[in-house]
Design brief:
This protein is mainly alpha-helical. It folds into three domains: 435 residues, Up-down Bundle (Amino acid/polyamine transporter I); 145 residues, 3-Layer(aba) Sandwich (Rossmann fold), CATH 3.40.50.620; 180 residues, no CATH class. Helix content is 49%, strand content 6%. A ten-stranded mixed β-sheet has the order 3-2-1-4-5-10-9-6-7-8, sandwiched between helices. The longest helix is centred in the N-terminal third of the chain and has 36 residues. The N terminus is likely disordered. One of its GO terms (biological process) is potassium ion homeostasis.
């Protein structure tokens, strides 16, 4: 606990007796206002005895620390309440000021939702105990999930197709079909239970759960498909209802037009009525669902009673003979008929009847406690509906023969030799219609078999109405709710219009209208057996991803995966995902391919757009696990020259200040090797620490926006050199550590303070000491573009966001981030058929060759011709040229043009020599060749000064740099890029000013970028296979 010292307590005697409350300790201009969103303390809080509120907060200690509370973790406060936040680390750890000052200002600013939310958290208002007048309607697990799921599962298939499937597949295979479907849905139910209990759930149902678990890429695609599948399911259930009504019209001889158009007309009228109920609001929709549930219960009771009642003559003529052992035995085995007469044909028609398990999850935003309601209600719904399916299949298969004529005249004397079939034993002869396949009744011909068997047929009709309409209504609500959540996330273009909600329940009225239009389009098909398989693939695709979400979240071992529902297994979830995909292809392989193609297309779109959302998905956790595993695995990999990669520490400062340097290194390291942008922030640590926190994310976003694959690393140091030393030693991880230091050329070295030049050259020496290679980049126009940038905005974010940026001590952070318009550089443009000239003057291990080779492989540089220049003697030019060509061919670099420079050691022109002498003149010690001790004494305070002895010793090397500049101007004036071996000045023997003069005269007056490169004298190229 961060306790307050006595000296920190305000001095008001009236408040200093006994212990102090938080408000008395803080004091100041806020007039004792409570902090951290606490209510105003009662007067007793200022007495020597504590209030209960104080004890809850502090346990009686004089401290600004707070005890754990729900509000500190919630996304936002309730309506009209102040946001409660815990003290920041700075409040507890740093010095607390005396009266007249507040705690660290940032602690009390409202924190943005993306800082606190993991995507699975509801508003804190849901925890409020009292129900405000405008609070939306919430449902428990029975009414909100179990009843809704059962109604959605008990759909049109139960009444109109389950008897027919039993006749086609037989009781045994029908049970297999039911249990296989239930296996998939039960595994999915367990997975959805685990996902939904891993944090608070908002509205959006299946889409919300998948997207927050697997991320927006898969979540978005499956959300769109799932919403569409529910809209089509509205059509399926409505067509089932319309079929029943049409059969009634036919039975009473009152068709509207013809059978097909009757279904269309009735379907459109029905779905319009369902739309009206949905538009009335969730409360009315829920009341309608309860009514439908009661009707279905009564119809079930009516059916089971009907199976026990002895059949009338009319029912017997239609194939019903009550419970008979031989009928049961005959109906155990399949009797496939028609184009759908196969196991998977029946499965594809039945499976949509098991897909209602997500009806409760799809209205997750309207549940009181989704984490409890979804698992309990979903699994109970699966249990009871499975029992009902198995019972109805077994009972109706024991009572009704497959074929019957429906004619009262088809009676026969028992044992007649002309009669074939089980019905003969019960006094009925259906032989003729059976052989001609013209029977209109019987289990396999009559879809309304359950009505015929029941005690009172209109009650079954009412049950069909209740089941079909309730399922259609649930699917209509699910489609709109899921689609609304998807639209709110703005993952896809042109759908934001449908995100708007209306009323206290945020009803997606526009989503209802869209789902209505889709449903009407599919109602026009007017054929239930055609619509059902279309839906099956989309639901199976959703189930596969739900199960994979559970598996992936478990396998990543993320600390954030802590579902309160424990009755799941990651391997069973994976099995559920695999079996769902397998069933998709077994049902309709071409529809499965279409569904998967749509998912992949939508996935690729989201991957391309990269929406700015952060939901803490398992994909993110998996990426970390994979990166960690491979990074640790690299420690076991022995280094080999063939696997050498130039891993660069680039001293960019703020990366946006030196875009050319970033682009150059980013070009040849992209998808190949490590790049770290190093930034040394110079100054006292306490003073610069707030700035460090603010700028890091901004620079990383700038790199991402520029599509540079690099890391950003910053350190605070007292001076540049010590900061770079820290970076050189600490940057990287394991084997992924930089081995090349890339710096920009210090263009202002002649006018800058000599101490900064001394540090600059010292950094190069430090790099060599740590066995780094070194690259120095010089551009004619310079590298630092910060002077032309606008210093008053933070362009990584929108200008409006810039106004919201946290301030440091009341002022904006001094570091400029990036300009709105990204500065373009030569490395971002096509180079055409220019030359890349390599001056490989000294053997540094091959780095001088490797970097331009990697650059030349990139699209913008691959048309350039690479020329290699080497030094040589005029009388051995051919031999030396052939030797270098032979060496290069063994390296397989593709460099074929080699030039030998025999005049490299000639004396430079006098005017150029004079220019060099004038350049170093201000830095000469002019000691007159005195002894070393005297010289050291003379430059004790100016170590960069050049003694006469040093000028004399390095005269040949100095003239060589002057001559090399002449050669560069002669041969490479129009090149796209010049790469030249960096000369090395011996540490302690070559003053920094003399070394900088070498680099200056070597690269002076050159138009193209110049890269001065020196490897660490170890091989980076090899021509061996091992």
């Amino acid at each position: 606990m961060a306790e307050l010292q006595a000296s920190e307590v305000p001095g008001d005697p009236a408040l200093c007796s006994g212990r102090f409350t938080i408000s008395t300790l803080l004091g100041g201009e806020d007039g004792g206002r409570p902090h951290y969103g606490q209510p105003d303390p009662p007067p007793a809080a200022y007495d020597t005895t504590h209030s209960s509120t104080f004890y809850m907060r502090t346990f009686g200690y004089n401290t600004i620390d707070v005890v754990p509370a729900y509000e500190h973790y919630a996304d936002s406060a309730g309506p009209g309440e102040a946001k409660k936040v815990r003290p920041t680390l700075a409040d507890l750890h740093s010095f607390l000021k005396q009266e007249g000052s507040h705690l660290h200002s940032l602690a009390f600013e409202r924190r943005s939702s993306h800082e606190l939310s993991d995507g699975l958290v509801e508003d804190a208002s849901s925890a409020a105990g009292e129900k405000s007048p405008g609070e939306p309607v919430r449902f428990g697990w029975v009414k909100g999930v179990m009843v809704r799921c059962m109604l959605n599962i008990w759909g049109v298939i139960l009444y109109l197709r389950l008897p027919w499937i039993t006749a086609q597949a037989g009781i045994v295979l029908t049970w297999v079909i039911i249990l296989l479907s239930v296996t998939v849905t039960t595994i999915t139910g367990l997975s959805i239970s685990a996902i939904s209990t891993n944090g608070k759930v908002k509205s959006g149902g299946t889409y919300f759960l998948i997207s927050r678990s697997l991320g927006p890429e898969l979540g978005g695609s499956i959300g769109l498909i799932f919403a569409f599948a529910n809209a089509v399911a509205v059509a399926m259930h409505t067509v089932g209802f319309a079929e029943t009504v049409q059969d009634l019209l036919q039975e009473y001889g009152s068709p509207i037009v013809d059978p097909t158009n009757d279904i269309r007309i009735i379907g459109v009228v029905t779905v319009t009525a369902l739309l009206a109920i949905s538009l009335a609001g969730m409360e009315w929709e829920s009341k309608a669902q309860v009514l439908f549930f009661l009707v279905i219960m009564v119809s079930f009771a009516n059916y089971f009673v009907g199976t026990l009642i002895p059949p009338s003559e009319e029912k017997a003529s239609k194939g019903f003979f009550s419970y008979r052992g031989d009928i049961f035995a005959q109906n155990l085995v399949p009797d496939w008929r028609g184009i759908d007469g196969s196991f998977f044909g029946m499965f594809s028609i039945f499976f949509p009847s098991a897909t209602g398990i997500l009806a409760g999850a799809n209205i997750s935003g309207d549940l009181k406690d989704p984490a409890v309601a979804i698992p309990k209600g979903t699994l109970m719904a699966i249990l009871w509906t499975t029992v009902s399916y198995l019972a109805i299949s077994a009972t109706i298969g024991s009572c009704v023969v497959r074929d019957a004529s429906g004619s009262l005249n088809d009676t026969v004397v028992s044992g007649s030799p002309d009669c074939v079939g089980l019905a003969c034993g019960y006094g009925w002869n259906f032989t003729e219609c059976t052989q001609k396949h013209s029977c209109h009744y019987g289990l396999i011909n009559y879809y309304q078999s359950m009505s015929m068997v029941s005690g009172f047929a209109p009650l079954i009709t009412a049950g069909i109405f209740g089941a079909t309409l309730s399922s259609a209504l649930a699917c209509l609500v699910s489609a709109a709710k899921v689609f609304q959540c998807l639209c709110e996330d703005q993952l896809y273009p042109l759908i934001g219009f449908f995100a708007k909600g209306y009323g206290k329940n945020n009803e997606p009225i526009r989503g209802y209208l869209l789902a209505y239009i889709i449903a009407v389009a599919f109602i026009v098909i007017a054929e239930l057996n055609t619509i059902a398989p279309i839906i099956s693939n989309f639901f199976l695709c959703s189930y596969a991803l739900i199960n994979f979400s559970c598996f992936h979240a478990s396998i990543t071992n993320s600390p954030g995966w802590r579902p309160s529902f424990h009755y799941y297994n990651k391997w069973i979830a994976l099995f559920g995902a695999v079996i769902s995909v397998v069933i998709m292809f077994l049902l309709t392989w071409w529809a499965a391919l279409i569904a998967i193609a749509v998912v992949i297309f939508l996935l690729l779109y989201v991957l391309y757009k990269k929406p700015e959302v952060n939901w803490g998905s398992s994909v993110q956790a998996g990426s970390y696990n994979m990166a960690l595993s491979y990074s640790v695995g690299l420690n076991e990999v022995e280094e080999h020259i063939k696997n050498y990669r130039p891993q660069c520490l680039v001293l960019t400062g703020p990366p946006n200040f030196r875009p050319a340097l970033v682009d150059f290194v980013g070009t040849f390291t992209r998808n190949l090797s490590l790049m770290v942008c190093g930034h040394v922030i110079i100054g006292p640590r306490k003073q610069r620490m707030p700035e460090l926190r603010l700028i890091s994310n901004g620079h990383t976003k700038w790199l991402n926006k520029r599509k540079i694959k690099a890391f950003y690393s910053d350190v605070i140091a007292e001076d540049l050199r010590s900061g770079v030393q820290i970076l050189i030693q600490a940057a990287g991880l394991g084997k992924m550590k930089p081995n090349i230091l890339v710096v920009g050329y210090k263009k202002n070295w002649q006018s800058a303070h000599p101490a900064t030049v001394e540090d600059y050259i010292g950094i190069l020496h430090d790099a060599f000491d740590f066995n780094y290679g070194v690259c120095v980049m010089r551009m004619r126009e310079g590298l630092n573009v910060s002077e032309v940038m606008q210093a008053h905005i933070n362009p990584v974010f929108d200008p409006a966001e810039d106004q919201k940026e946290p301030r440091v001590n009341g002022a904006r952070p001094p570091v400029i981030l990036v300009a709105e318009e990204q500065a373009s550089t030569i490395f971002q443009s096509e180079q055409g058929k220019k030359n890349i000239d390599i001056y490989w003057l000294f053997d540094d291990g091959g780095l001088t060759l490797l970097i331009p080779y990697l650059l030349g492989r990139k699209k913008r540089w691959n048309k350039c011709k690479t020329r290699v220049f080497v030094g040589g003697q005029i009388n051995r030019m051919d031999e030396e040229r052939k030797a270098i060509i032979s060496l290069l061919s063994k390296f397989r670099l593709g460099f074929h043009e080699v030039h030998v420079l025999p005049d490299i050691n000639q004396k430079p022109r006098p005017e150029h020599t004079k220019r060099f002498e004038d350049m170093i003149a201000p830095f000469r010690l002019n000691d007159g060749f005195k002894d070393e001790a005297t010289v050291n004494e003379m430059r004790r305070d100016c170590p960069w000064k050049i003694s006469d002895e040093e000028i004399n010793k390095n005269k040949m090397k100095s003239l060589r740099q002057v001559r090399l500049n002449e050669v560069l101007l002669d041969y490479s004036r129009d090149a796209a890029l010049i790469v030249i071996t960096l000369p090395i000045g011996r540490k302690g023997k070559c003053p920094s000013s003399l070394y900088m003069a070498w680099l200056e005269i070597l690269s002076q007056d050159l138009r193209p970028p110049v890269i001065l490169t020196r490897g660490n004298q170890e091989n980076v190229l090899t021509f061996y296979c091992q």
